[in-house]
C-alpha cells in the first residue's frame, strides 16, 4: 500500500444536521403500518461535533498530516455505548490508482480510536468504497460503492445506488467475516426519508 495518500473528495458535506434518532427500539406508524425501529440511522459526518478532532487524531497518531484520511459518509453512535461512534475514512495514493478505506471506532470520552477494518482497492473497483450507513443489532450497516459516487444524504439506503445488494452487515465482533446483504426494510426507508428532510445535499 502506498505510504502516502491524498485527499479523496466524494462531494460537499451536508450543511444541516439530520434529526436525532432514538438509540432504542420504538414503534412508529408509516402509512398506517406499524413498524418496529430497532436500528440507528447515521448522521452526516460534516455536522458531527467531533469531526475535526477525530480526523486530526486518526491521522496524527499514525504519523500523517491531517489531510490524508478523511471521514466520509455517515457517522453513527453506538446505541449501547454513549459517546462511542463509528465512521469510515477514505484516501487515495498520489497517482490515484488505489483507494484506501478504513472503518473506525471512536470513543469521545477519552479520544481513543480503534480501526476495525481496512482495505486497499483499485480505484476502478465498483465496490472500492465502504461507507457507514447505520447500526443494528451489533452490526454496522455498510454501503459498498464505486469511487467518486454522487451520494445524496438519504440514498445510502437506496437500493438503486451501487451494485445490487450493496448494503451489507458488518458484525462489530467479526468485521472481516463475510458481509451478508441487508434487506432494506420499511423502517430503514422511513428513517432515510426523515433524514433527508434535514439534509438534501451530497455527502
From TrEMBL:
Protein's UniProt keywords contain Signal: yes
Domain of life: Bacteria
Keywords from the UniProt entry: Signal
Secretion signal span: 1-20
Protein name in the entry: Lipoprotein
Upper taxonomic lineage: Bacteria, Candidatus Uhriibacteriota
